């Protein structure tokens, strides 16, 4: 029985990562932001978007969710760097928030790849036997703060936002300040796997529930040109030969249908066809990274034309 549990747990955890409140203690986590309602940020403490009519166009990259497909995001950032394109704003959902935070905090894409290549995903699995999930997420938050050099979000060299979901309001919540590790935890809290993150009466789960590819948040934060990266909806579909795979396939179909209008509203959509890497699959990681890089290379003429049309430096 013990051996069966040891084999079953990594399988369930991997499957849940690839797909993407009662019972959790209320606690004050150190992040803040605003709800996204009809394309605008709404909260008493929202950061206002200044009048940008006389300012150079701002380029944003919106990194979408997709679990272990996220290695492709590193390839995307490497290709943009090689092309001399440096985003002014980084917005991420779920795995996109993790990669995006590390990049916005000052790490180069090559440094990100070195970190990702040596990362042990299982080290982030802090198991709990109570509540609406079986991973606490505290290890993820701790690791996230190490990843960004213990900086708070507002002190990143590049403006950054992580998108989570307020499950009570059914709205995206755009985190723009405070504890980066807790923000990443809230953005990547896959329902049914990670415990929800509670703060001041609000319950937060994975941002992919409401904003799989966070283009609208990037616009609300003042982006003029949005480069969106969808790593989830254009690759192979899950098979339908078992109960688990059928559930994953339906979840993927629903998520992609809901996210389609938002992703399509980007100025440029990068959508590599990614097969998710396994937890210990070094070859799969490299393949995802390469496909992300190649997708940017293919889209580069359209991207440069879009930037010129908006008056951005080429």
From TrEMBL:
A motif (GXGXXG) lies at residues 65-70. The keyword Nucleotide-binding does not apply. It comes from the Bacteria. Residues 1-19 form the signal peptide. Gene3D superfamilies: Cytosolic phospholipase A2 catalytic domain. GO terms for molecular function: hydrolase activity. Residues 61-219 form the PNPLA domain. This is Patatin.
């Amino acid at each position: 029985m013990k051996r069966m549990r040891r084999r079953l747990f990594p399988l369930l955890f991997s499957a849940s990562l690839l797909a993407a409140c009662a019972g959790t203690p209320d606690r004050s986590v150190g992040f803040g932001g605003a709800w996204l309602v009809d394309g605008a940020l709404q909260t008493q403490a929202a950061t206002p978007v200044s009048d940008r009519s006389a300012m150079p166009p701002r380029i944003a990259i919106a990194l979408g969710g997709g679990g272990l497909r996220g290695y492709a995001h590193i390839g995307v950032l490497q290709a943009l760097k090689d092309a001399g394109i440096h985003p002014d704003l980084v917005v991420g959902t779920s795995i996109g928030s993790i990669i995006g935070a590390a990049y916005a905090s000052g790490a180069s894409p090559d440094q990100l790849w070195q970190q990702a290549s040596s990362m042990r995903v299982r080290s982030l699995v802090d198991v709990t036997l109570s509540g609406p999930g079986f991973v606490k997420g505290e290890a993820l938050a701790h690791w996230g703060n190490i990843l960004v050099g213990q900086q708070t979000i507002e002190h990143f060299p590049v403006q950054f936002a992580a998108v989570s979901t307020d499950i009570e309001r059914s709205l995206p919540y755009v985190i723009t300040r405070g504890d980066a590790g807790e923000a990443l935890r809230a953005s990547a809290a896959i329902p049914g796997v990670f415990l929800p993150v509670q703060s001041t009466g609000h319950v937060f789960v994975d941002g992919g529930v409401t904003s799989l590819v966070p283009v609208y948040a990037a616009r609300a934060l003042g982006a003029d040109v949005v480069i969106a990266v969808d790593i989830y909806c254009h690759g192979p579909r899950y098979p339908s030969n078992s109960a688990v795979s059928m559930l994953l396939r339906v979840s993927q179909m629903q998520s992609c249908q809901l996210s389609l209008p938002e992703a399509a509203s980007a100025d440029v959509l990068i959508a590599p066809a990614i097969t998710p890497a396994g937890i210990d699959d070094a070859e799969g990681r490299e393949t995802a990274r390469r496909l992300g890089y190649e997708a940017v290379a293919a889209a580069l003429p359209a991207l440069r034309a879009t930037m010129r049309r908006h008056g951005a430096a080429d």
